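The instructor's notes for this session suggest beginning with a concrete chain rather than abstract definitions. Hand out the sequence below and ask the class to guess, before any prediction is shown, which regions might be ordered.
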Amino acid sequence: MVTGALTKDYGAVLALDSLTVSIAPGITGLVGANGAGKSTLIKILLGLVPPTSGRAEVLGHDIATEGPSIRAAVGYLPEHDCLPPDVSASDFAVHMAMMSGLPRVAARERAADVLRHVGLAEERYRPMGGYSTGMKQKAKLAQALVHDPRLVFLDEPTNGLDPAARDEMLGLIQRIGHDFGISIVVTSHLLGELERVSDQVVVLDGGRLLRASRTDEFLDATGALLVEVLGDDAQARMSAALTRAGVTVTARGGLLSVDTAVARRGETDGPDVHDLIRDAASDLGLGLVRLQTDHRRIEDVFADAQGAR
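After discussion, reveal the predicted structure:
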């Protein structure tokens, strides 16, 4: 997918502001706070909402002239609840498959297959009005996949889910993208939750592009170590001891972020920071629970961009 200076101006709100981005095949996380322009972008790419200006292509199709061709080749999980409450997931998936052109027999086979993949095999004949939020999201995912699309847009698929259901949904997304080979664009306002499943990440803020790159480039090592210690007033005592040794330490939740560049105070050589951490924990009688390389998070990129304004 490619967009060029894509703009959507609603008058009171500028939803997209000259957005230019190229999205490669694979799993793409489209992240940003609520109101960043994620849902508007998806609706424009589906040909459902016309842009004010600019252009875009999806799977080689122009959004301005080939909306039906785009919608035939992609699946879409909308953010808001759109399921008919008195219809079963099976009947709904069959109907959506037939709407996409599958014959009835093939539609039933395909519906049974995708409902099994998303974990609704035993509940597929129940009316969807009695489903939990997690089950409704699975039903929406099934209808997005039932016609075997080349690409799916998933708009806030984890919205309203508890932690266990969110993890399950993220696992499904990863399996669909990596095992089934279907490209995915998945949106979230929770900036950190897509790190584990996305091949690339696009970060939006106020309709503008903050950054787009491979996920592993977001998560480069920071030149710091994350340290977790246990004991009485452990974090403060460990921080004070390392600071006295010439190490820069900052609190990060229940952890300490320790800069690996030790201040040498004029010395040409000195102890390794790993040794300093080990020795400080031993001298203070603290339990050293964790010592690992610190990586940047998507939240860090967003915070950096906000701070630079």
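Then share the key points. The chain is about 35% helix and 30% strand. Confidence is low (pLDDT under 50) at residues 264-268.
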